[in-house]
Amino acid sequence: LFLRMLEARKCVGLLYFAAHGVQLSWRNYLLPVDARIAGPGDIAAQCLDVGSVASGIGRAANPMNVIILDACRENPFAVEQKGLSQMDAPTQTILAYATSPGNVASDGEGANGLYTENLLREIRMPEAKIEDVFKRVRLAVRRASQGQQVPWESTSLEEDFYFLPPAEIRKLSQEELDRQFAEEA
Predict the structure, then answer these.
(1) Contact between 83 and 28 (Cβ < 8 Å)
(2) Are 134 and 94 spatial neighbours (Cβ–Cβ below 8 Å)?
């Protein structure tokens, strides 16, 4: 449904996942809350393969995508593979991780993990480009964890994006919406 909506609406896509994620054989998986994992074979069978999701999002041919994964946890079935594995972002996508490849993210002490807590604060900053948001999150998390957790991104973005755009961009966007509405009427 999400991929069909991106394809039909040609809008900016945002996928945010905060829960358990593991890597197995260098592939990243997101664990649904109802997964019953008894061994490594259950991971591929019951969990969501991040690479497949990212490829599907890339095929939607929408203008831009943001994939945020606060899901780096120990994998009890593959001791040598901690955290999530490195992935390249599909075209026009930024892929943001709570911590660098092969490392584990802190659950934090509040309602959200350390990464999400800082991300929620930074996306509210007016006129901040998306890359700057993630740089400030990385700095705050690294400092708060005394270097134990360093957020990481892979990006193939070519255009600027703002969660809260500058006034002149908002004005241009509203003018475009008004023009489209007038054409449809």
Answers:
(1) no
(2) yes
